[in-house]
Design a protein that fits this description.
The chain is built from 14 helices and no strands. By secondary structure, the protein is mainly α.
Amino acid sequence: MRSAYLYLGIGILIVLSTISLFTGISHLSLATLWSDEEMRDILLISRVPRTLALLLAGSAMSVAGLIMQLLTQNRFVEPSIAGTTQSASLGLLVVMVLAPSAPMIVKMLIASLFAMAGTLLFMLILRKIVLKSALMVPLVGIMLGGVISAITVFAAMYYDLLQSLGAWINGGDFSGVIQGRYELLWLVGGLTLFACWVADRFTVAGLGREFAINVGLNYRQVMLLGLSVIAIISGIVIVVVGALPFLGLIVPNLVSLVMGDNIRKTLPWVCLVGGGLVLLCDIIGRIIRYPFEIPASTILGVFGAMIFLCLLINQSRYAKH
C-alpha cells in the first residue's frame, strides 16, 4: 500500500515538474517546441536546469536537515537554524573579498569549510551547556547564527559588498539558474544518495553516544561523516541558489508525523516532499505576480514559519526522540 502512495507521490512530482517547465514569461507549448528552435533553446538552457536545480536543492537540504536532527537528537534544528548556513555565507564573503574572480567550485569549497566549522562550533556549544529543555537547542543555534550573521553583515558593509552578498545568499531565486550554473547541484544529489546508503548508521548515532559505542559503531567517525555531508550540501546550495529557510526542519517533521521514525523508509519521502515543496513554492512565486517573480525562498519562508509555529505549539512531544 505504501508503494502505491510512493508512486502517487512520484506522479505528483512529475506533474509539478511539467508545470515548472511550461511556466514563465516565454510561452512554451508542445507546438512551439516542435516548430521554433528558440523555444527549444529556452527549454534546454533555462527551464530544464531550473527544474532540476529545484528538485536537487530541495531534496538535499531536506536530507541535511534530517541528518542534523538525528545527530543533535532534536527535531527543531536544521542548517539555517544551527549556524551552518550563516557560516557558509561568511565563507562566501571571504571569497568575494580575497578572490572575487574565483571559480564556482572554489566558492563552494570555502563556503563548505566555513559551514563545517560553524556546525562543529554549534555541536561543541551543545556539549558545554546544560540543556533543560529541547527548545534550548534551536535557541542556541539561532543565537549562534545571529552572531555569525552580524559579523558577516558588518564585514560586508566594511568592504561595500552588502548588496552583492545579499543577492547571493538571500536570493533563493532560481530565475538565474541556467545551463552551466547549476551543475554543482548534481554533487548534492550524489550526497543525498550516499546519505540514503548509510542511513542506518545515522539512525544508530541518533540514539546516543553510549548506545552507538555499545553496538560497535564508530560514533566519532559517523558524526564527522554526517557533519561533512551537512556542510557540503549547505555550502553548495548557498553558492548556487541561496538560502532555503525552514526546509530542512519542516519536511523531516511532516514526514515523520505521517510515516514514523524508520529513517530508511522515510528518506525517499523526505527527498520527494523536499523537492516537491521547493518546486511548488517556485511555481507559486512565478504565478502570483506574473510576469514578475517572487523568490521561492520568500514563499517557502512564509509556509515554513507557519508550519514551524504549529509544530512548536501543538507537537512539542516530537521535540525529542
